[in-house]
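Holo prediction — pyridoxal-5'-phosphate.
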Amino acid sequence: MSSQTAARLDGLLPELEVIRADFPILSRTLADGQPLVYLDSANTSQKPQCVIDAMVDHLERHNANVARAMHQLGAESSEAFEAARDKVAAFIGAPSRDEVLFTKNASEALNLVANTLAWARGPLEVGEGDEIVITEMEHHSNIVPWQLLTQRTGATLRWFGLTDEGHLDLSAVDDLITERTKVVSLTWVSNMLGTVNPVAAITKRAHEVGALVVVDASQAAPQLPIDLAAMPEDERPDFLAFTGHKVVGPTGIGVLWGARAVLEALPPFLGGGEMIETVRMESSTYAGIPHKFEAGTPPIVEAVGLGAAVDYLSAVGLDAVHAHEQALTGYALEGLATVPGLRVLGPLDARERGGAISFEIDGVHPHDVAQVLDVRGIAVRAGHHCARPAHARFGVQSSTRMSSYLYTTPTEIDALVEALHYTRSYFKL
Amino acid sequence: MSSQTAARLDGLLPELEVIRADFPILSRTLADGQPLVYLDSANTSQKPQCVIDAMVDHLERHNANVARAMHQLGAESSEAFEAARDKVAAFIGAPSRDEVLFTKNASEALNLVANTLAWARGPLEVGEGDEIVITEMEHHSNIVPWQLLTQRTGATLRWFGLTDEGHLDLSAVDDLITERTKVVSLTWVSNMLGTVNPVAAITKRAHEVGALVVVDASQAAPQLPIDLAAMPEDERPDFLAFTGHKVVGPTGIGVLWGARAVLEALPPFLGGGEMIETVRMESSTYAGIPHKFEAGTPPIVEAVGLGAAVDYLSAVGLDAVHAHEQALTGYALEGLATVPGLRVLGPLDARERGGAISFEIDGVHPHDVAQVLDVRGIAVRAGHHCARPAHARFGVQSSTRMSSYLYTTPTEIDALVEALHYTRSYFKL
Amino acid sequence: MSAELDSLYQEIILDHYKNPHHKGLRDPYEAEVHHVNPTCGDEVTLRVHVADGVVADVSYDSVGCSISQASASVMTDLVIGKPVAEAMAVHEEFLALMQGKGTVEPDEEVLEDGIAFAGVAKFPARVKCALLSWMAWKDATTRSLEETP
Amino acid sequence: MSAELDSLYQEIILDHYKNPHHKGLRDPYEAEVHHVNPTCGDEVTLRVHVADGVVADVSYDSVGCSISQASASVMTDLVIGKPVAEAMAVHEEFLALMQGKGTVEPDEEVLEDGIAFAGVAKFPARVKCALLSWMAWKDATTRSLEETP
Ligand SMILES: Cc1ncc(COP(=O)(O)O)c(C=O)c1O
Ligand SMILES: Cc1ncc(COP(=O)(O)O)c(C=O)c1O
């Protein structure tokens, strides 16, 4: 488990030190002069200089409102904003750039779908007798919107359970996905268990019964190459949501991709400037997509930052990022296995999972683990990671989670593992 | 109308050149080496260096998710985020800082109220027979949400008309605000006509009949001192909304202030992380305010920027900003009066209005006016400024709008007026 | 500065703006559409009458800037009397000119007065103005054809 | 590093964590509450029995970190048997200590084992852990008093 071993790890990004130098915060020192070991990227990722610079350049030189402003600054700002949409569309291989909507975060993107379905009339209408299917490993942001929808429409919420290994229990698929199913909403990669779900197979099954499929790609977009246009149509979800701040972009922006036909059939979400065609006091007509779903001044400088972020990730290459994550995850799983009394929640094979690893240690509460690590400069997350039902499924109230990203080194994993050994000894275990 | 006259204008900010130096974009040159004359601040304001620097410092040194992250960076980020809430609360004199909710923009803030009312049950429930009252001078973002609410609940939408001078026609107040009124929502300052509305009197009247009052302060917050706590309780609105990018802050953040009792009585808006207390698959319970209404990762770096922005405005002093705006508005109204065929839409007395002035010029379409100005480096807005009904009221389809702010100089107004004369001659009028 | 403006506001454009051709709504027609530019509020109501595969008449009522008004006028000159397929080809050619960012050389044979809009292509914010009535015409014509089997 | 940790994890705290006092839910009680720290998931279910103006019993069931568990244990030691008003005063004192960011000197006379939490006040993220059961106790006691006129 020495850094000699680490350096020989297959799949690591070759120019890791160059990449690290792109992220100013990584050279920060914490209390007591500790270097920062940031292992909380599934919570939010750090930002490379190029993203920060793009935002600063926009604010210092091109700031203006978009669409509505016809002057030179307005044209520059609008162009930068719409260019960001093009970049994001390319990042996920969207069949059409107009299908890419900017929201404030992934949570809003998921709520947008649930809310517009609540008001839809006609074929998309949700009501009594209809069923919405989610899974027990969802983030709260992909649970609560559907609870609200079903409570408000009289529909029924159902969910996939989990196997002891942390996979979806697919044995019940034919019972769960039926003619009554209107929507199946699931995460691509679990933010707690790390599990990568068989999104294509489930989508295909859901489409057979005429259900819409919503994929929460908040943890997938940072680490898996996504190419919607390349997916066979019956395996392509109808919606895909992710959030800017986890793909090295800023907060304040999220993305919802939706298939054109569905977006066009849905009623508007928020009403206001930009989403209208004509407004009369009596009633209004609405703009086409994407604007129909973007009421008010959009997150302009955030889109500029997000555009720079996905460009940065694409330049590194999502295949390379994914290989790096897998290498580190495998290395971390090995290291964690050396800590007595430590139990990993979720799949133990790095090839079946993403880069977030949640675990418990017998006799030390996750808070206390995280506290000891923090004093050593190691940032991890402790709690239920907004996935309380998944924790309940495994009989735990909370866990400690380490999560790596493209700037994480094996040496940082070594530091984590050593600190966990220290934690046990500190608490006299 | 020379700059000699201008220099003697009463009420101008004394250190105007120092303030201008705080805004990097103002020293930019446009095509053909033209200096920028930015007269589109009612659309979006420019950003001072301190706001940009605060955001950069956050991204480069303190970036982490808030609330959920317990490590050192997480504590720093959470503290910065919640400190921004304190600053915003102080900026508007909120009776309690927990009543300050962060949204993505003013539009979302207004939709939040309309949406939660759509789902409210009990005393706040809106249904057939109930009435929502708005005005004909609202921004689309304060019209469409109420159209959607009334269409969806069967309630009736009514509105104040306008006088020829651009004031609310208050003669109908007793007919409009009645026992049937559930909500009165109106703008404090019109973004098109500049009119400052008698918010206190209308609020008092609405409270007498038990209606809730929503004030759209998007144009008021940038230029009027606001002190909610100092208002007599019956004259204090129940909600106040504004947007970050118009108060020298970034895009991607808006503010909704709401009275605690009402916020607590309303159902949640968006569901997800941060807004919950306990999540079970069957159902969830929700956090207290403000978190109940802030689902998902909030606009963290945007809050940091907005905090710096309101600190900047407070340091200059809102009274001083207001006096500056009034001086410039008066000066601009005089200048515009020298342009033949020019008609100002809205009150002609600077003391009765805000700093946005919309006008038409006989024989030249607003687009064409804005185009000629733009070639001379002068940025104004042309169109309906998201206030189509107000334009229709005055029988016009669109107008040209100039809007000043604390960095605007009389010399820039001179440049505008001269360019308008040139526009007429260019189009051979 | 004036040179830049002159490249946008060609005499031909200002002439059509002041004296628009074929303006006003007329019968007969198979389809009427209403198009809006939501950002600026320009609006056009437009009717198309197709007879024997020929664009027999295009009539319209509109409010908007010089570019959008002149464009409607020039458009009617170009399409009225042409077989639908040929008119659509002219539409394509105009669209290509507008979206060319100033790099497309206009063909006077095809576009006639429409070549005056070449300068508009260099003003991205105004391209929508120039296209408003053309888009409305295409929409209405497609609907007309659906109406008349 | 270890010194910093030691200021947080005092022996007294770790002892209460390993052997919590008064744990488990008991009868009789007038009010039962359930409090949660939504950010980390720590939970406590807590019952209060008030008799003749005295906190006769406090029983609880809880999951959470060492700080939140030890705090519940210490709290029950401090309030059980005290007149309500006196117990509330202890609560106030503990609250002031926790919110003092490490600047408040704890009074051992009043807080007894509670003084061990002085170090927690320097860790803002952990203050909520230390306060969870105290807040639940206050809530339940207030409700108990409403129940028993
Ligand atoms: C009066 C008024 N209300 C609401 C808004 C909407 O603000 P935003 O676009 O930031 O949501 C604006 C500005 O566009 C405005 O001027
Ligand atoms: C799987 C998953 N879904 C949704 C979210 C919500 O993202 P946000 O908080 O940016 O809305 C997150 C991250 O917090 C996540 O990990």
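READOUT: Chain D is about 50% helix and 15% strand.
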